[in-house]
Structure formats: C-alpha cells, structure tokens
Amino acid sequence: MSFSARGSLLFSPLTVRGLRLENRIVLPAMVTRLSGEDGLVNGDVRDRYLRFAKGEPGLMVLEAMGINETRSGPLLRASHDRFVPGLKDLVRELHASSPTKVAAQIIHFLKISRSGWRQRVQDLDRKAIEGVVEAYGDAAARVRDAGFDGVEMHMAHAYTLSSFLSRMNDRRDGFGGASVENRLRVPSMALARVRERVGPDYPVGIRFDGEEAIKDGYSVGDASLFAVRFARLGADYVSVSAGGKFEDAIHVEGEPLYPYTGYSGDRCMPGAGYPDGLNVYLSEGIRHALKERGCHVPVVATGKIRTPELAEKILRDGRADLIGMARQLLADPDWPRKVRDGHADTVVPCVYNNVCKALDERFHRVRCTLWRKHDLHAPEAPSDRAPPVWPAGARVTATGHRGGVRLEWTAATDDGGVYGYMILRSEADGPFVHVDSARGVSLRFDDHSTLGGTPYRYEIVAYDLAGNRSRPLGPVAITPEAPHG
Ligand SMILES: Cc1cc2nc3c(=O)[nH]c(=O)nc-3n(C[C@H](O)[C@H](O)[C@H](O)COP(=O)(O)O)c2cc1C
Ligand code: SF4
User: Fold this and answer.
1) Does 350 sit in the ligand 2 pocket, CB within 6 Å?
2) 320 CB less than 6 Å from ligand 2?
3) d(CA 153, CA 105)
4) Which residue is closest in CA terms to ligand 2's atom 4?
5) Per-residue model confidence as pLDDT tens digits over 280-325
6) Per-residue pLDDT for 483 more than 80?
7) Is the pLDDT of residue 2 over 80?
8) Residue 387 C-alpha to ligand 1 middle, in angstroms?
9) Is 208 near ligand 2, meaning CB less than 6 Å away?
10) Band of pLDDT at residue 1, cut at 50, 70 and 90
11) Does position 31 have pLDDT exceeding 90, yes or no?
C-alpha cells in the first residue's frame, strides 16, 4: 500500500524564523560541478535546480558556494558582488516555479595541492581568522541580497569551520585544543558576524558533523554542545551530517585530496552496504540535548533516508524535525510530490552506488547513473499511468556466476520507453526486497551479495519515465552453491 501523506508529519508545514516550509523534506546541499571555474550560475546550474524545485521539497539548499578566492575546480561562488546578479535571477526563477523555499550553503575552505599537502587551521594567524569571519559575513549578506530565503553555514566535513570544531584542532591560543569552548570560538564568531550582517529576521542554518567518524574525533557529546551554542547564538536550524574528513582520506598520486575517500567519507555518503538511516542517532542525540536545555531549534537528519515510512517514523519518534534526502532526490527529484500525491510506488529508488560521488571527486558534472545515458538532469516524468509490459514468452533466468548469481531477462516494452529494471530478491521464502536497479538498456545483473546454500527467488520489475511499474517478471529460483568444507 502506498504511503498516505494525509495526517503525516512529513507533509506538515514547519516555520523557521518566519519562513514557512510546506513539508519536512530538505534537499541538503549537493555540489553539482555544473558551473565553470568562474563560479557563475549558468544554464546547466539553472536547469538542475529548476528540476529539483519541480519535486517541491519544503527546503532546497543550493550547493556549497565558495566564499574565498581559493581555487577548487568548478564550484559556485558567493565570494564577490559580481556573483549576485546570476544568483538573483536563479532564485527569482525558482520562486516563480515552485513553493519550495531556497537557501544557499556558504563554504570557506583552505588550500590543498596535488602533492597531498593541505593547509590546516593550525596555520592561520589572527588576521587570517578574522578574514574567514568577515568572508562569512560578506557572503551571507550577498545571499540575502540575491533573494534567497535563508543562508546555511557549512561547518561540516573537511572545511575551515569544521576543522576548527574538530578534535584534531590542537591550537593552543584559545582557538583550539581540548576545550570545546575554544574549538567553538571561530565558528561562533562567524555565526555572530553572519547574524549581524543579515539582520534579526533572516533564517540562518548551520550544517555540521554530529560525529567526525575518524579515530579520536568527536562524537555526539561535543556535537550537542556545538548545537546548543549555535542555537543560543540565534541559528534557526541545525543540519546534522557526519564524517567527510581529510584525516583518513586516501591520497591518489597527483590528485588533490578528496575528503570522502576514507571511512569518514563512507559515513558522510554511505553506500549500499550500510543500513538505512545510519546517522539518525546523531540528530536524535543532538535534538535531545537541545530540548533538555530549552532550545527548540529544528534538527535535520540525513543519511540514507529513502522511504516515506522511515522518514515519518524518524519524525514521529522525535529523532529529527526535518528529513534531509540528497542522493534519493538526485535519483528522483519528484519524490516529495509523488509521495504527497499518493504515488510513492512510482518513486525511482536510489541504489546508493555512489557514482554521483565519484563524478564529484573527479570534478565531472554530477549526474545519476540511473538516468538515461546522455541526460544531464533527471528526465521529466510524463503524466501517463500505463506501466511497461512484458512480451509473450518473456522470462528471467538465474545462473551461478563467480560466487554470486547472474540474472538475465527479456526486454519489456513501454510507449515512452523502459527507463529501468528493479531487481527484487526473496531469501528463504521471505518477502521480496528491492536490492538494486539496472538502467533500461541493461538486461543483465550480477548479484554479489548472496550466501551459498541459501535459496533465493528473484523478480524483475520494469519501470518507465513516470516510475510506473510493470507486474513482476518471475520469480526465478536459485540456490547458489555452498563452498565445500
Ligand atoms: C555529489 C555529492 C555532493 C555533495 N555536496 C555537498 C555539499 O556541497 N555540502 C554538504 O554539506 N554536503 C554535500 N554532500 C552530502 C549530502 O548533502 C548528504 O549529506 C549525503 O549525501 C548523505 O545524504 P543521502 O544519503 O541522503 O545522500 C554531497 C553529497 C554528494 C553525493
Ligand atoms: S548515482 Fe547512484 S548513489 Fe548517486 S543518486 Fe544515482 S543511484 Fe543514487
């Protein structure tokens, strides 16, 4: 049965410093690499965000925009007034096209080089620190001038303010060390400056790590204190991420360090092997700590939250106030509208294979592997409700292959074309569960996550551009061989 939005918390509004969000779904910032090195809004950037806006999430946070002139491949910028007109046009179009509210994430980062060297917050003198604080204030003012509904300060992952918060920040001059207060000092100065520049009525969000996910890094204890400080300084929401640190990043010879290559990177953008909602304990702990101290600042939870049932449960259980959904909305930006309108069963599910992340790492334009090969954005969903059909005699076969199972099937047909195939698997007569998807051109899938000696059944479901799903083809049964001994 499809999820019912009526009476749900997920589709109830929330007002953040006077800004009404129509639902609790947030598109967290996601770098697109669609701008040039010039940092200006171009047609591709515009089309990407207009596509997201069509899905009508409550809040959309535009990708991290650089606030300093340090080079960083293709990245939007808010580091100079010359960027304001392009951003202004974009926001105007977004507002005209959708009820979604639009914020901008602003980021300060330090220098890195292809040799693996990186500048650290320990290298910044007092003047440089003041420069960081001023740059946040100036960029926030530009974001407001451009007409955004709010500004989000990036204090997560590997970047400057996050590195001040980090337990790896061992400065001894009052801006680091064991003391939470000292590690909070520069982020607090930046937040206070931002508030000064944007005024008392403007929504300011903070994104930071609930846990660094590196050895000896901080976890939810320190993070809760950070959140309380941000709330007391007037932050209007806190968005909880995890990991994404340089400390455990894997250096590829001749390439700049990418902070999502180690375990902490996995925790930030968890792949298919991790459980759904794995980081929710962080937003839960932080929300609890805030409430205990009388701070009623909304908390955003993010990290492999893909189904409306899970999202609703997180809200009902008081583990977060807003649900961040990055890659699922990249895979299918219409998720909020489909779910709201009772068509959750036409959502195209993200398969968390992190192809988008790999594109980001290489500074290539970020797209989803499930889209059609040459599409730069998620295809428009037509309004038809006719699902793909299987031709007479269609069949799916399963054979043992390299320690796993190989599935092959007959192509389905659809008026507008088959967009993809979902692979459903049942283990030992249990329920069928979606394990992965293949693009529409593919008629083969290798399942590497089987256990020899276990009976499996598989079904294939074809879906079209609107997400309409065929009846399942199959089932086909197989018990992969167990190794001897
Ligand atoms: C391609 C890509 C780019 C990202 N860029 C940003 C960013 O600019 N700022 C940020 O705070 N997080 C960024 N993230 C992290 C996401 O906002 C999100 O926290 C993460 O993907 C986990 O959420 P999900 O499981 O819903 O995708 C990015 C993630 C991806 C996959
Ligand atoms: S590329 Fe993979 S992980 Fe990224 S949005 Fe698409 S399906 Fe999800």
Assistant:
1) yes
2) no
3) 6
4) 356
5) 999 999 999 999 999 999 999 999 999 999 999 999 999 999 999 9
6) no
7) no
8) 32
9) no
10) low
11) yes
The best mutation among 155, 207, 266, 269 to test binding of ligand 1, ranked by most ligand atoms within 8 Å of the C-beta, falls on 269
Give the CA angle between residues 450, 454, 460 to the nearest 5°. 60
Nearest ligand to the CA of 275 is: 1
What is the whole-number distance in angstroms between the Cα of residue 287 and the centre of ligand 1? 21
Q: Which of 434, 450, 435 is nearest to 401 (CA)?
A: 450
Q: Could you tell me if residue 199 is left (phi over 0), alpha (psi between -120 and 50 degrees) or otherwise beta?
A: left
Ligand 1: does its nearest atom lie under 6 Å from the Cβ of 211? Answer: no
Helices 43-54 and 84-97 meet at what angle, rounded to 10? 30
With a pLDDT cut of 90, the percent of the chain lying above it is 92
Question: Looking at the DSSP assignment, which residues form a beta bridge with residue 150?
Answer: 103
Which pLDDT band, with edges at 50, 70 and 90, does 256 fall under? confident
What spacing in Å lies between the alpha carbon of 289 and ligand 1's midpoint?
25
Residues 6+ apart with CB under 8 A from 302: 26, 28, 239, 240, 241, 279, 283, 323, 324, 325, 326
Ligand 2 centre from 420 Cα, in Å? 13
How far is Cα 199 from Cα 393, in angstroms, rounded to an integer?
67
**Contacting residues for 167 by C-beta, under 8 A, at least 6 apart:** 183, 212, 216, 217, 218, 222
Residues 6+ apart with CB under 8 A from 291: none
Residues 6 or more apart whose Cβ sits within 8 Å of residue 430: none
Domains of the chain, start order: 14-361 (3.20.20.70), 396-478 (2.60.40.10)
Identify the nearest ligand to the CA of 277 by its number.
1
Average pLDDT (92-104) is 98
C-alpha of residue 369 to centroid of ligand 2, in Å: 6
Using pLDDT thresholds of 50, 70 and 90, give the confidence band for residue 71.
Answer: confident
Ligand sitting nearest the alpha carbon of 274: 1
Give the per-residue pLDDT at 452: 94
According to DSSP, residue 196 is labeled H
